[in-house]
Amino acid sequence: MTNILLTGFEPFLDYKLNPTMQIVENLDGEKIEDYHIIGRILSVDFQQSAEQLKRHIEEIEPQIIISLGLAGGRYKLTPERIAINVKDGEPDNNGYTPVDESIQEEGADAYLTNLPIRQMVNRLQAEGYPAEISNTAGTYLCNNIMYEGLVYAQQHEGVRAGFIHIPASFELAIQHGKIPGWHIRDLIAAVKLCIEETIRAGNH
Ligand code: PCA
């Protein structure tokens, strides 16, 4: 059995729920071929989330790390291409508001994902889901956790890591009032297709 670490985030800013939690809880424990999906929820806290990710990686020893984040306002599923060494933006859930900070002082400026993001998008579109590669994960928590995952992948031969931003669920879109949404069932199915493509790419 090979482990896949799938992470989501808790609610943040004016989003009262985070559909990535529902997706992760739904797929936690699922097996695809001889891969085992293990789901974990991360805090929207710059310091804590990085430490939590490291702890989960130590415990689970995943070959694949896929992190999910909500991108309220996007209407497509967007696998991310790149994480940059920058922390900046809105306050996290504990009020910390970095301005132009580095994630890792001595770290590379950026890392490209080694997940098969083109295949993911092609597969999603073939199955009828709106999807495209995103060239920025922003500078908030999602970029932060993607960067940390890619640092680990860089240091561990054979590990693949990356990040997928998802649109709101209908439930959140209705609560929020100004963002598009998908049915949670479709969000779950689409993320599962991305995981399948990652497994498939690794089997070649
Ligand atoms: N999305 C935010 C942080 C948590 C989440 O789900 C982001 O895009 O950075």
Rg of Cα set: 16 Å
Q: What share of the residues does DSSP label as strand, in percent?
A: 15-25%
Major β-sheet, in short? Answer: 6 strands, mixed
**Shape estimate:** globular
Number of helices: 6
Give the strand tally: 10
Q: Give the proportion of residues in helices.
A: 25-40%
Structural commentary:
With 204 residues, the protein is an alpha/beta fold. The model has no long low-confidence stretch (mean pLDDT 97). 45% of the residues are buried. Helix 2 (46-60) packs parallel to helix 4. It has six helices and ten strands; from the N terminus they run βαββαββββααββαβα. A hairpin with a 2-residue loop joins strand 2 (31-32) and strand 3 (35-42). Bound molecules: pyroglutamic acid. The site of pyroglutamic acid has 12 residues, from strand 4 and helix 4.
Question: Which tags fit this structure?
Answer:
six-stranded mixed sheet, globular, single chain, 204 residues, 22% strand, alpha/beta, two-stranded antiparallel sheet, binds pyroglutamic acid
What's the short story on this structure?
By secondary structure, this protein is an alpha/beta fold. Helices cover 37% and strands 22% of the residues. It contains six helices and ten strands.
How would the blueprint of this fold be written?
Elements: E1 2-9, H1 19-27, E2 31-32, E3 35-42, H2 46-60, E4 64-70, E5 78-79, E6 82-84, E7 110-112, H3 117-126, H4 141-155, E8 160-166, E9 168-169, H5 170-176, E10 181-182, H6 184-202
Parallel strand pairs: 1-3, 1-4, 4-8, 9-10
Antiparallel strand pairs: 2-3, 5-8, 6-7
The chain binds pyroglutamic acid (PCA).
